[in-house]
Amino acid sequence: MTDFGRLRTRRWDDAPESNGDPHGRRTLFSDPPQHPATPLLALSINCSSCGDESLVSVREAIRLALPSVHLPLIRRRHESWMLCPACAERTWVRLRPRL
Prior knowledge:
single chain, 99 residues, alpha+beta, 2 helices, 26% strand
């Protein structure tokens, strides 16, 4: 019979302090965070209702603009009536190209 007197039992509070991932396995085997790619040619949409400014591709701007009204000579600041991508409401917005 072997003497186990020199081995002590581990308790839950004897565990080393860790942040939940002591060996960095989550970082090692996970994909890096993906940032949305900025389109080559984009439009900045500034909403008059929510005040948010969104950057969308030209294709997305066309989808948001159908149907829409554009009055650049009558309305100075927010000249287009279309769907805002930020608040999802039809409102007056300002469109500006971003290169």
